[in-house]
Amino acid sequence: MNELALLIAATLAAGTPLAIAGLGLLLNERAGVVNLGAEGMLLVSAVAGFAAAHDGGSEWLGFLAGAAGGAAVAAVFGWLVVWLNTNQYATGLAVSLFGSGFSAFVGIGYVGKQLGEQPPHRVPFLADLPFVGPALFRHHPVVYLAIALVAAAAFFLYRTRAGLLLRAIGESPQSAHALGYGVRRIRFAAVVTGGALCGIAGAYLSVVYTPLWVEGMVAGRGWIALALTVFATWRPGRILLGAYLFGGVTMLQLHLQARGVHVPSQFMAMLPYVSTVVVLALISRNPLWIRLNMPASLGKPFFPGA
């Protein structure tokens, strides 16, 4: 029973960066913008967050720097695809490659360094409960922030006028423009906000989850977060479910290795990515279902004069 509680706790911790990054990408795509640069944004924000936390002595300073780094990279991406109408897919791949190289260069001086030990996090009274205490109530505040952000995003998208406008732009930017709304401005704001969320996720990896900086430490999580938007059919609540599912797969392979299950470690390490491919393959079997849920203008440039 204690092992199960620890597995649940590890699943929540592993799924948190996926949930936050996936939520940021979902906001992008709800506005009609595909950002394939998530991996690069996570890497830039991870090194920025670690550097700020290490040099500044505060993990919250690290989160602030990570969010700023992610937002800055996203702003460059947004300027290219929203204002200059460059190809979203090619630009996103370029951002991903840039982030990988830039983070490796900037982070050379931080390789091998570690942050100071942080005090354990506990929810008063609830953390002492049997089973549910260690499973649910001994996490870093960002774990609970991820859940709150998902709830806030769901409320924003489906219960507010601004959220309705964002979804309308993702469906038909020409109609929104005809009504007098600034489509480019709103799309750019969505891209930068999504980048800031990816920045928080990247900082969480290097400041809390590890906590250290290693080149390429994001290890494909940006691509998994991107796949989560399709898995979730562009709904915030399902982003959280999918993030914990993939986080659970990651932790399960480590748990089985610790229990002495005789499976090649390389195969176990493949499980999170294999499960991502399998899920996407299953979803893709029903293209009509995807078209009914996918924003109609996703990946398409917008020309105000057209």
From TrEMBL:
The keyword Cell membrane applies. CDD domains: TM_PBP1_transp_TpRbsC_like (cd06580). Keywords: Cell membrane, Membrane, Transmembrane, Transmembrane helix. Its main location: membrane. It is a multi-pass membrane protein. It is found in: Cell membrane. One of its GO terms (molecular function) is transmembrane transporter activity. GO terms for cellular component: plasma membrane. The chain crosses the membrane at residues 6-26, 33-54, 60-82, 89-111, 141-158, 188-207, 213-232, 239-258, 264-284. Pfam families: BPD_transp_2. InterPro entries: ABC_transp_permease. PANTHER family: ABC TRANSPORTER PERMEASE PROTEIN (PTHR43370:SF2), SUGAR ABC TRANSPORTER INTEGRAL MEMBRANE PROTEIN-RELATED (PTHR43370). This is Inner-membrane translocator.
